[in-house]
Structures
1.
Amino acid sequence: MESLYTLIEMVVKNIVVVLVLMGCVAYTTLLERKLLGRLQVRLGPNRVGPFGLLQPIADGVKSFFKEDIIPDEADKTLYVLAPGISLFAALSMFAVIPFGDTVTFLGRQIKLVVADLDTGLLYLLALATLGEYGVVLGGWASGNKYGVLGALRAAAQMISYEVALGLAVIGTIILAGSLNLRDIVSAQEGMWFVIKYPAGFLFYLVAGLAEINRTPFDMPESESELACGFNIEYSSMKFATFMIAEYAHMFTIAAIVTTLFLGGWMGPWLPGPIWFLIKVFCVIFFFIWERGTYPRLRYDHIMQFGWKVLLPLTLLNVVVTAALVAMGVL
Amino acid sequence: MIGIGIGFKWFIFVVAALVATGSSLMMVTRKNPIHSALWLIVTFFSVAILYVLLNATFIAVAQIMVYAGAIMMLVLFVIMLIHLEWGAQWKRRLSFAKLIGGVVTILLFLQVLAGVFTYSDAGQKGVYSAQKLAEIGNTRAVGTLLYGKYVFAFEIASILLLVGIVGAVLLAKKRKD
């Protein structure tokens, strides 16, 4: 009987998390378009529904009814598989992120996280690399020069920034003494890691932006030189799947920043999940604001910055943080 | 209840082992190198599942992160960069390299086969049982061993990698003259 309850709990948690995540992702696209509009002194979408609130639904319906084209040159299996890989990685990353403390429901203690993994942080890093396969394979399988160029750029960028991303979180692991994300959040009781360890926060934000291919690091799909890059041949729902995966990935990175550095679900008065969502949307607001502010970097500059600046700095950061913790300063 | 658990574990083991064997066969028989690389990723994944079944969560995640993630991405990058997918044609000719490779493979296979039939691990118990791992945490156990008992081997391995990196940089560097 107990195992049956556990099964029901798991299924319900999965469904709720995926639905809420998808809802948030849909409205993040609207938020991005609205905010970018405001940053460029225009209104953004405001025709569909009050304040354009039905725009994401209209977009979804539209892309669902568009013609689905598979190019002749394409590697058919991989071409179909690629958007799925992207979406799978972005969604399953969210499984280990705790969005609240435990709640008691019908006499059962329920942890507000889908999977409470001991190696949660490593799991996140591992799946992040998998998500990039969607982009790389999608670009290659299209059989298009621009697509292949986008795929190559995505692969090179991922290899370069993945290292910095991993090194940036090592400081958090040292401070919290655990890889479990719930333990990391609990370790921030009283003082968030963003105050205690601001360097790691900055490094993670920069490397995270490169990870989700956003401006100023949106090399794989830079419109002005690659005409959309890796997703150039994609149409209809496959294109929409790539878009959903991209925004889900962005939401997940924002959630990881919240968990690792901004105290996760913790906060006064309001319940945990509400605080979690508020913090996540603050980070997403930053991502959009930054996109409206900075121009795209040149490709060789991105590579130089990654290997010659970010990597040595993050390495130094690991040594210094470990020394400070060992001396008892932090 | 325990019976169901063990049965389920056994089921997962059989599926993962079959997928690992099948995908490695697919890997060596594909003509397109990109497809080979992708089947290798599938192999790495199923091996990672086997690690999880052995209570080695850290090794499993490290396997996915390092091999299935970073290294295979590098392999894909190189294949795409030099356009191997259109250039490389499978030649049916028997060459000296293929002969040596075949002989070495057969020898290795015989060695593994002999090992499977003569050596048995059953009944032996190490220091780190499943209960102890759950108590102190998998990552902590690996870390303690790696930086304690095996620190010498660990440092030797890192120096070996460093030599590799220095060599690669030296090769890639332009000559002055």
2.
Amino acid sequence: MAVLVNKDTKVVVQGITGREGSFHTKLMLEYGTKIVAGVTPGKGGNDVHGVPVYDSIKDALKEHDIDASIIFVPAKFAYDAVMEAIYNELNPIVVITEGIPIWVTMKLVNEAKKRNIYIIGPNCPGIIVPGEIKLGIMPGHTFKPGDVAVISRSGTLTYEISKLLTDNNLGQSVVIGIGGDSIKGITIPEALRLLENDPYTKRIVIIGEIGGIEEEKAAELIKKGEITKPVVAYIAGKHATLRTGVSFGHAGAIILGEMGRPESKIRAFNEARVLVARLPIEVIDYLKTI
Amino acid sequence: MFLYEHEGKEIFKRYGVPIPPNGVAFSVDEALKIAKEIGYPVVVKPQILGGRRGKAGAIRFAENDEELIENAKTLLSMDIRGERVERILIEKKVNIEHEYYIAYLMDFFERKPIVMFSTEGGIEIEEVARTKPEALVKRYIDPELGMKSFLALEILNDLGIKGREARKFVPIFMNLWRAFSESDLLLAEINPLVKTIEGEVIAVDARVMVDDNAEVRQEWIKEFKEKRGGRESIEYRAKEKGISLVVLEGDVGVIGNGAGLTMATVDLVKEFGGEPADFLDIGGGAGPEKVFEAIKSLTQLPGIKVILMNIFGGITRCDLVAKGIIEALGKLNLQIPLVVRLTGTNEEEGRAILEKAGIKAYTDMIAAVKKAVELSKEGR
């Protein structure tokens, strides 16, 4: 049993009939993910790649056991879709959708927290336990099973570094893409706590970036000794200090005054004795030494 | 997106937060016209997005036309921390009895709104927190409950403001909260919030940030953007095409897919001795059109010597990226070299398309970065 999901997790895809939803349902099925149902309001009765489609999660639950959800609906409908998943007690809920207003995410995350439900994302690539389950949009062949966990605020940079890991025979216990928005479900510190208790994870890679204070909070946990597993970090956006107050691609990748600066994150990690790689390949070098 | 002070005040006004009579001027003539309407004395304030004008000595006063002409001229030719002043706010001067501070902001980490109030306004709030923390109250707001007048009174009472005096401030708390929570704001700060000699409580400044993702449900954001001159900027035009562009100041043009990978590419250029000219993210699943537009955007950057493309295909397909590159080469008459790193989904097809056009794509990111930096130096 890995963290959050495993090979037995039964999944519903919300927004399964859309272009992205349908395309990635196919790829997830090919990877071996147990997708038992899809939901698109008003499209109940159809099927997508052999997966039956329902109008609501409630209706799908009459026919199937469902644990988790992955959501592809457009930002405009995201509030309803995520709330529906929360009210039906699905856990975790992976939100791929980009462009959800921050106030909406704030309300969704608070509601989920009250019920001890994990939201991953929004604006994220999802979660993969290599060889078991892919609940996301990442290219599956880039990953392989092992004992390194990856927590990342980025999509493609995660693929880049995971590929380096895989090519260097460092397989992964789980890779969690927590997303690029300012307010999100699982944060780096929360993911660290989960991984600390995961018997399959021996080492952890954090791929952070400018914006927010998650990296600093993660460093605090490590410094306090609450995380004992060795951690290596990479921070993207070291050269973004030239332009403050603007987002670098991700809504959350923004320096606001003194908050979100790369040097603050690197300093916090250094103080917690976490090695911070300058180049992506150094992540591999550092992992090999710990 | 940060708002100009006058834009922020426009939002405040809609929600009943009192502001002094004012108007925005782009020229001395316009400034005079506004002053005639609202009457002297006036305050003249440059409108910039960076904040902290007071420290730059950029807030001026005028008692008459001569003083206004002089100050408006000076301010309209000013650069404040690299930001060109092109608009000034002419505002009726208020008679200050005391300056306060009020702000609502979104705490991204705790995922809850915060309210802050202080009896020490007019100076930076970080300084108050450091030197006089007893004059500052900061509270989390339960997102389900929202702001309530009893909470406002509790905060005011804690700072020694009571009874009839406290009641004067409650509408500001409530109306500013409505502006904040109903307009998808991430920051709504009034510093100073002024109590006038006449006994009014009035917002003399406005520092406002709005969530860019809220444009779908806040129509005023688009209106504000259109009213701004920024429409013509390369960054704005790129955004209209779904491309995320931030202009930096070097000569190595950077294009990537995905924010993290693109930021990392910018960092690597710097790491290997080059100067990145920009950050340009074509996003996930980009087709040939977006790639074409991305390259086209960069050709408009002055002083650019080489373009470096770093693509890791996940949902983005390398063959489609390659098609975009070929189209750009054909139509744009590119005068500068293009270094491409291509790996991931449909890599072989993409590579084959580029090879036909004589471009050898790199697989390794570092090798591509080094090559681009080297080329940028040859051109110097």
